[in-house]
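Suppose you are handed a protein chain with no further information: no name, no annotation, nothing but its sequence. What can you learn? This example shows the usual starting point.
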Amino acid sequence: MFKFDFGIEDDGVELAQSESSSPKLEIQSEPFTDLPLSQLLESLPPLISYSPLSIPLSSSRKNATLARRDLFDARFQLISDGGGDEPPAPTSALGFLDAPSDLIPGVYEGGLKTWECSLDLVDYLAGLEDSRSSYFSGKRIFEVGCGTGIPSVYILHRLFCGDPNAGSHVHLQDYNASVLELITFPNIILAWYMSPASAEYRASAPEECPPADPSVPGELPITPDLKGAFTASLATHGISLAFSSGSWDSLINHLDAKSDIVVTSETIYRTEALPALIALLRKACTDTQPHCLVAAKVLYFGVGGGVSEFVRALESKTMLEKGCAGKAESVWERKVGVGRKIMRIEWV
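A reasonable first move is to predict its three-dimensional structure. Written in structure tokens, the prediction is:
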């Protein structure tokens, strides 16, 4: 197993080097699975506990604050659903939460935690929006390896704050379906609730509605009326959502629509997975000026991946022969501590 140890935990940011503590594993990839919105709504618990996530911005706004489901709350849901009767298996969702490792290749890919580079993407995306009002409106957006989904959550919050009938489509993908159910989708519900789009619902049930203030921790009751109001808001704002789990190799055969904005963060840590990731990013992008953004640490200590390995794979003869080669332009960089970059991909 691999230990990254530089994730953003519920109580703040911690940075450290990673280490490898076991031999290389034989990886059996998860198959593609489509998760309908109805299934994700059904999987919501009766109550969601959340805390603020403050994201510093280098654009004109000082910061962005999002409500994020507490990790301990997801664990409590699993135990309440019967997952805590016996010691959790390493391959179970509860096992992921309790495991000493942040990564079990081919089993769990770290999606339950929020990683620094996803916040970097929010910073960059906020700058795009500042340069053009309603930048995300009417766009098709795809987040690859979304985990907690913070970049997409930010985009959806901005869409819910904007004019109705945006006509936007947001697709979120993660290796583990349990991550989408336990963390990603609850975070999207919170993004809607903390926006003006939920105002009518909040006014209809003031006794059970916490303040729509993402800077204050709280608990959100999940009622049938809330689910109905959320679904209605999606229709009113012209927002469609898609969710899928499984390996990138399996997803590429099911991906038909192209996207205007394709983002991924903290996904280049395994060099053997780079060809599949690059092929998926290429297939997902429109042929006319897509924003394809890859946010990553310069080096993933102990694992072998990093920016140099990604660029080498992106520009390789193998990718060129497959029609997936590209050039990476650095559009955002942080050199203090563990170096981080955001690269915009231009396909050749």
